[in-house]
Amino acid sequence: EAFFHSFTMGNTLDCGLSECGGTTAEGDEPQDYSKPIEYDASREAKAPAPAPKKILSSLEVHRHLKEYYENWKNGTIQPKQLEMLQKMPVDPATGLLWWQWVERHSGICEHQPPRDNPVFLS
After folding, report:
1. Cα–Cα distance measured from residue 77 to residue 46, given in angstroms and rounded to the nearest whole number
2. pTM of model > 0.85
3. Is the predicted pLDDT of residue 20 greater than 70, yes or no?
4. CB-neighbour burial class of residue 20 (10 A; exposed 0-12, middle 13-18, buried 19+)
């Protein structure tokens, strides 16, 4: 019997994650997922809207998050990247944090119920 994972986390992320700890474009500040987006009505009247960001596919998101997870596990993740990842909201479909989602979809841990720490820190 085939086992199918739902890769819903990919529907909640944008390309800004790939630049965690860096800048999203020349001169832009890193994205902070812990704060709501504030829109400046006066800016909208003066400048055209920026081009929409590419939405990552579920497989791309899984690949990126898995890479960050492995870097964290190996101690090679940049502190700013880890800080930005830890500020990400939980996946609305599963209620899992980013690393819990990676562990579930990589077959490391089902997180039913969710664990407080990644398997490699246990």
Report:
1. 39
2. no
3. no
4. buried
Q: How far is Cα 47 from Cα 115, in angstroms, rounded to an integer?
A: 46
The whole-angstrom separation of Cα 8 and Cα 25 is 27
Q: What is the C-alpha to C-alpha distance for residues 64 and 72, in angstroms, rounded to an integer? A: 12
Distances (CA, A) of 16 to 13, 28, 45, 76: 8, 11, 25, 20
Report which of residues 26 and 107 the model is more confident about.
107
Burial, 39: exposed, middle or buried (Cβ in 10 Å; 0-12, 13-18, 19+)? exposed
Separation between Cα atoms, residue 58 and residue 48, nearest integer Å? 30
What's the mean pLDDT when you consider all of the chain? 76
By the 8 A CB rule, do 89 and 33 touch?
yes
Place of tokens 């996946």: 91
* DSSP secondary structure, 33-61, as one string: TTS-----HHHHHHSPPPPPPPBPPHHHH
Rounded Cα distance between 21 and 85, Å, is 9
